[in-house]
Every structure is written in structure tokens, then in C-alpha cells.
Amino acid sequence: MTDALHRDLLELAQEAARHAGALLRDGRPADLAVARTKSSPIDVVTEMDIAAEKLITDLISGRRPDDGFLGEEGASVEGTSGVRWVIDPLDGTVNYLYGLPTWAVSIAAEQDGETVVGVVAAPMRGETYHAVRGGGAWATGAWEGERALACRPAPPLDQALVSTGFNYVTEVRTHQAEVAARLLPLLRDIRRSGSAAVDLCDVACGRLDGYYERGLHAWDFAAGDLIAREAGALTGGRPGERPSPDLTVAGAPGVFEPLQRLLEDFGAWHD
Ligand code: IPD
Ligand code: CA
Ligand code: CA
């Protein structure tokens, strides 16, 4: 029964991500502008973020009217079924605004508070990543069928390629830059893609050895975190904790632990 439910949730998440991805890819106005700002003047929302969230929540609630919702652009419904959808309709809005290709639709389904399904669609890559808890992580793209995802065998930390991101609030990003400056000489290099969901899936694909960021919300990491874990990566927050707005860390076993330790030593979660 649970497996059948998870399979249904996966198919619904894939359908919603496919439609929202097509809307964002094909419907992007040439004169796309900022509709409003949120935590700071550089934390922007476009009409397309709002339209994509509406498409996703309309589609899912039409099929499953008793489910709960948490969406970045305001969806907030308690629900009565025990299933809650956690949605970032457009992760990587600043890239999208500038016409850069790294952005994604991120949809997770939780059952009784645990993430059981994650789908991240990256339309400009032509790739979609998905996972069901306990069922491995998979990608579809410009190839036949589904490809199993596996994180990369861990290199020594000084040869690890690690991605991160910076918060929209000036004081937080200033501190993040200080942490990154201390980390950089200890790694192969640092990347900043502009989409937390894509970063987590890149850990799952073996395109990155690790990823960390402070200040994420559940909608940024819910789907990507499950996909990374199902691909064999370890994920967490501060030592002993789960990913949270304080800190999200992901990495191949062997990269995760030393990275998490360094982030703790450098106070990566601090104000
Ligand atoms: C942002 C992206 C970015 C990360 C920011 C997020 P948004 O999400 O994931 O990579 O560094 O912390 O807020 O605003 O584009 O949905
Ligand atoms: Ca986001
Ligand atoms: Ca977003």
C-alpha cells in the first residue's frame, strides 16, 4: 500500500514538475521583470515564480484535495491526509531572471513528516532527477530510460569540488564569504551554481563531491536532499543534526564528515 502510494506521489510530482518546467522554459517573457522582493532588495520574485507555483498546487490539489502544501511563494495548507507537498516552483530565480540556464523546479512529498518522494526538474539541462525513499535515485534525460545515480567516490578533501550558495541578506552573505575564504585553500575548488536543488542533485550525480549552505528553507532542499541520500551521499546540518535553515551539508561519504567538521570549526551557521 505504501509503495503504491509513493509511486502515485512520484508520478504526480513528475507530472507537475514537467508542466511547470515547460511553462518556465517556454513562457519566459523576453522583458521578464521583478514582481516584488522578499528578504532583501536582491531576493526577487518574478511573475513566473508565482505562475509556476499556482500551476503545481492547482494540479496536485485537483487530484489530491486532502493533502497539505508548503510552497515558497505562499502555498500553506495544513491538509488531513498525512501527505504534505514541499515546493520551490523556481529554484535559481536570479539565474532565470538573467537568462542563465541553472534553475529547477523542486517538488517533494512528505508522509507523516518524512520526505518520501523528491523530484527536481532542470529543463535547460534536459534532465530530471527523482527518488522515492528506499528506492535509489534516478535521472531521465537525453538517453533511453532512467539512469541510476551514484555519488562520486570520495577524494581526499583537498581534491574535493564543493559547491555553496550565498544568502540574500548582506550580513549573512558577508559571513558566508568569510567561511568560504577559509575553506577554499583546503579544497580543490568552490562552485556557486545559483540553485541549491541543482547543487544537491549534482552531488547525487557525482558532478560535485560536496555542497553546503547556510540559510536554506525546506523548499530549497527537501527534494534534493532525498535524491542525494538515495544516491549514496550523506546529508545533514550541524554535526548530529538534520539539514535545516542553520546549515545544509551534503557529500560523498569521506567528504561529508571532514567538510561538516570544518564548517562547525569555522562557525558556518553563525549570524
Ligand atoms: C536560492 C537558490 C540559491 C541559494 C539561495 C536560495 P531561489 O533559491 O537556491 O542557490 O544560494 O540560498 O534562496 O531564491 O532562487 O528560489
Ligand atoms: Ca530556492
Ligand atoms: Ca524559488
Explain the overall architecture.
The protein is 35% helix and 25% strand. It is globular. It is an alpha+beta fold. An eight-stranded mixed sheet has the order 4-3-5-6-7-8-9-10, sandwiched between helices. The model has no long low-confidence stretch (mean pLDDT 96). The protein folds into two domains: 4-148, Fructose-1,6-Bisphosphatase, Chain A, domain 1 (2-Layer Sandwich); 157-265, D-Maltodextrin-Binding Protein, domain 2 (3-Layer(aba) Sandwich). The longest helix has 25 residues, at 2-26. The protein has seven helices and 15 strands. One calcium ion binds at residues 88, 91, 196, 220. One calcium ion is lined by residues 49, 72, 88, 90-91, 93.
- Text of the CATH class of the largest domain: Alpha Beta
Spatial order of strands in the largest sheet: 4-3-5-6-7-8-9-10
Count of distinct structural domains: 2
Bound molecules: D-MYO-inositol-1-phosphate, calcium ion
CATH architecture of the largest domain: 2-Layer Sandwich
User: Which descriptor suits the 3D outline?
Assistant: globular
